[in-house]
Amino acid sequence: MGSNPLLEDEAVEVFTSSDPFVLFETWMAMAAEGEPNDPTAMALATVDPDGLPNVRMVLLKEASSEGFVFYTNLESQKGQELLSSGKAALCFHWKSIRRQIRVRGIVEEVSPEEADTYFATRPKDSQIGAWASRQSRPLESRFALEKEVAKYGAKYALSKVERPPHWSGFRLKPTSMEFWRNRAFRLHDRLVFHRASPDTGNWTEERLFP
Prior knowledge:
Elements: H1 20-34, E1 41-47, E2 53-59, E3 62-64, E4 67-73, H2 77-85, E5 87-94, E6 99-109, H3 112-121, H4 124-132, H5 142-155, E7 167-181, E8 189-194, E9 204-207
Antiparallel strand pairs: 1-2, 1-5, 3-4, 4-7, 5-6, 6-7, 7-8, 8-9
């Protein structure tokens, strides 16, 4: 069996930039090539009003020096928790290339213009689904959901689907980013970047014991 060219010799330095956003872009490009299923999938952690954590998988839609953007129903459990606390954490884990990135920071809503622009790129069935699903609320039966899909499908059969007012996006602006690479005997590489506020570009970095 041939070796995976994306898995470097362990002597090779993988922390190739002192800018965590540049390093993230490099690793995401590797994941896009080497991870067979949803390289943009990330675990999103929030906290409920009682301080208990919740985690679920979502998809990254944009990454830049401004932060990490994803979209959801604002009335869903995660939407309400994000609006309430204004904080969240992300975890990207790419088993195929043996790397992981953890991100923590504050969250803010994207602008209505950003949400409109992204919503317009979604398949029409997904747009209708955003209207039909009362995400995270009790559902009496599958048939009840299908009725809502049919209702909004008929409403927008011949017209553009408008973005629901309860559907938008969040941008996580990081205050810490940790990069992890698998190494033999569990002696993994870990590098973490910190900054006091997402409004400053002054990062400090340190290596951590595995």
